[in-house]
Every structure is written in structure tokens, then in C-alpha cells.
Amino acid sequence: MEGKTQDASSTAPKHLTPAQKQLLKRQQELEYWKRHSKQIRSRNLITGLTIGAFVVGLFSYTILSVRQERIMDEIDDEAKIFVMKGPRTGANS
């Protein structure tokens, strides 16, 4: 067993101090993040772009709805004016 090199996590002696256990755990976490950082970064990018697209779409929809509402208000105002003036017939024009 002296000639073999083994991973620190696979040969954890039972008589470690709490500080050594914490150091070993931190080293394992660091290795995990090193191995998975590219995958996590790509997931974060996809999530960010999805949320951004949703926000832009919602904003665009809201602006479009408000514009249409203003146009409908203008059409309604024109219709009210037309109704108040009355119909144009040959007798009253």
C-alpha cells in the first residue's frame, strides 16, 4: 500500500481533527466546482437568456397594448363627436 497513490477522499482516516475534516470537505467541494463549472455556467447562461427574453416579450406586449388602447380611445372620441353632431343627411347638412 505504500507504493500506491490514492485519492485523499477515499483514504480518510478515522482520527481526523474537525479542522482536517473541514479542509478535506472544502477540497472536495473545490474539485466538484472545478469539474462542473462549465456545465453550470452554460445552464446559468440559458436561464438568464430565457428570463431576459420573457421580460422583453412582456414589456413589448405591454407597450403594444397601451398603444392600441390609446388608438381605441382616439377612435372612441371621434365616434362620440360624430354621434353628437348627428348623422349627415341631405336635410340637415
Automatic annotation (TrEMBL):
UniProtKB keywords: Membrane, Mitochondrion, Mitochondrion inner membrane, Transmembrane, Transmembrane helix
Protein name as annotated: Cytochrome c oxidase assembly factor 3
Entry's transmembrane regions: 44-64
Task of the protein: Required for assembly of cytochrome c oxidase (complex IV).
Oligomer status and interactors: Component of 250-400 kDa complexes called cytochrome oxidase assembly intermediates or COA complexes.
Lineage: Eukaryota, Metazoa, Chordata, Craniata, Vertebrata
A cellular component term, taken from the record's GO annotations: mitochondrial inner membrane
Membrane topology per record: Single-pass membrane protein
Segments forming domain Cytochrome c oxidase assembly factor 3 mitochondrial coiled-coil: 34-78
Pfam families, alphabetized: Coa3_cc (PF09813)
Region (Disordered): 1-20
Alphabetized InterPro entries for the sequence: Coa3, Coa3_CC
BP term (GO), one: mitochondrial respiratory chain complex IV assembly
Family stated for the protein in its record: Belongs to the COA3 family.
Location within or outside the cell: Mitochondrion membrane
Polar residues bias locations: 1-12
